[in-house]
Amino acid sequence: MRIEQFGVEEWMNAYEMTAKYNIAETCVESLTVEELLSLSGNIEGSLDEICSIKLTYGEIPGSAELRRYIASLYGRMNEEHILVTQGGIGANFLAQFSLIEPQDSVISVYPTYQQLYSVPKAFGAQVYLWQLRPENGFLPDVEELKAIAKSAKNLKMICLNNPNNPTGALMDEKFIKEVIEIADSFGAYVLCDEVYRGLEHETGNITPSIVDLYERGISTGSMSKVFSLAGLRLGWIAGPIEVIRECFLHRDYTTISCGRIDDYLGVVALKNRDRILERNRKIIQENLAILTSWIEKEDHVSWVPPKAGTTAFLNFGEYDISSRDFCRRLLNETGAFLVPGSAFGPEFEGWARIGFACDSEVLRKGLDCISAFLRKLEGEY
Predict the structure, then answer these.
(1) Which stretches make up the Aminotransferase class I/classII large domain (predicted)?
(2) Residues 26, 355: contact at Cβ < 8 Å?
(3) pLDDT tens sequence across 285-310
(4) Rounded Cα distance, 179 and 182, in Å
(5) Which parts of 134-292 are beta strand (E)?
(6) Chain-wide mean pLDDT for the chain?
(7) What percent of the chain has pLDDT over 90?
(8) Beta bridge partners of 340
(9) Which of 347, 336, 344 is nearest to 371 (CA)?
(10) By CB neighbour count within 10 A (0-12 exposed, 13-18 middle, 19+ buried), where does 2 fall?
(11) Burial class, 104, CB count within 10 angstroms (exposed 0-12 / middle 13-18 / buried 19+)
């Protein structure tokens, strides 16, 4: 099996650890173990419980308690509809590994997390890209989806990422239902990577999950972005029981179980999710205001303001420099770190992804570095 190089992850692997101001990070500022356990109100008791955990495999699909708490994030799921995985990346891979065959067709939004379209392509499926365009607020065109679906042979799956990484675009319920109507007419699954669900920027606006709207909907999520716990490497698949059973069969070839301590800490987080979400939404609101103010002062930088999540796409196209050279020079000369748009595909040359849910001071200093670099570029012309 041949698989395409993972553009964003390769960029992150090559440069992330050398960054002084990492404003490419997609997680909300991470919690420490102490901060997480303090939410329980009994750090010593929690530590005693952790120390008593026997490091066996534990419950292979994830503990019943963890799966119940994950199920509570949805409207009509229970623990039988949940399978715990190693991160959201493990969830997406396992769902596609279990359902996609070489004779199938897959439609994926683009740009998005590359895994959603490169993995089924590697499995031999015909993959069609459904492009998000800035002139449409980085929302795709439903009529274009209809046309692609009509031309596709054996359409098996439509892949969404909602809220979207890297653009921060958000499909509302009406839009999702239009996608569902098309998928249903072909008997296709809709796999929706929902790792940013819960971080909508409009207060009180929670995006409905695909599994609560469509009988063949599959949701993937994780503890990484919304809950600031990427180090746990915990994700999940939520979906129809027959899909979960199929994924469980294939999971025997990828992962026996996730770690029992990770499972325990995941339960602690989900028991206290309201407090974590309150913290994280506050960080996002404050930092989005910082970023918006900066954009307003930069005459040659534009964007489509994000509606949800932790990332935004910035357009530096007025500067005569490739996005990779822009980001590489920015890092080398200032220590500020962004992801070039071309890492998402050649169509996004002139753009760069920023992650704005980091520590506020890191964001401010990183933006100052970009401004100083832009002044230098302007002086070179």
Answers:
(1) 56-368
(2) yes
(3) 999 999 999 999 999 999 999 999 99
(4) 5
(5) 155-161, 189-193, 217-222, 235-238
(6) 96
(7) 96
(8) 352
(9) 336
(10) exposed
(11) buried
Nearest Cα to Cα of residue 349 among 360, 358, 341, 337: 341
Sign of CA dihedral 146, 151, 154, 157: negative
In angstroms, the CA 107 to CA 127 distance is 6
How would you classify residue 79: left for phi > 0, otherwise alpha for psi between -120 and 50, otherwise beta? alpha
Collapsed DSSP state (helix, strand, coil) of residue 90: helix
Residue 381 has which token pair?
């012309």
Burial letters 14-25, b for 16+ CB under 10 A, else e: ebeeebebbbbb
Collapse the DSSP code of 82 into the 3-class scheme (helix H, G, I; strand E, B; otherwise coil) and give the result: strand
The two beta strands, 336-337 and 21-22, are parallel
Overall average pLDDT of the 201-220 stretch = 93
Q: Length of the chain, please?
A: 381
User: Is 0.90 topped by the overall pTM?
Assistant: yes
**How far apart are the C-alpha atoms of 148 and 31, rounded to whole Å?**
42
Q: Is residue 268 within 8 Å of 36, Cβ to Cβ?
A: yes
In the block, tokens 């994950």 appear at 70
Long-range contacts for 29-38 (Cβ within 8 Å, ≥24 apart)? 29/228, 29/280, 29/283, 29/357, 29/358, 29/359, 30/228, 30/229, 30/230, 30/231, 31/227, 31/228, 31/229, 31/276, 33/265, 36/229, 36/265, 36/268, 36/269, 37/268
**Residue whose C-alpha is closest to residue 108's, from 189, 229, 49, 31:** 189
* Pair of tokens at residue 154: 């054996």
Q: How far apart are CA 245 and CA 266, in angstroms?
A: 23
Contact 22/16 with Cβ under 8 angstroms?
Answer: yes
DSSP E strands, 135-285: 155-161, 189-193, 217-222, 235-238
Tokens of 241: 């029981």
Q: What is the pLDDT of residues 75-105, one digit of tens each?
A: 999 999 999 999 999 999 999 999 999 999 9
Helices (H) and strands (E) in the chain, counts: 13, 13
Residue type, 237: I
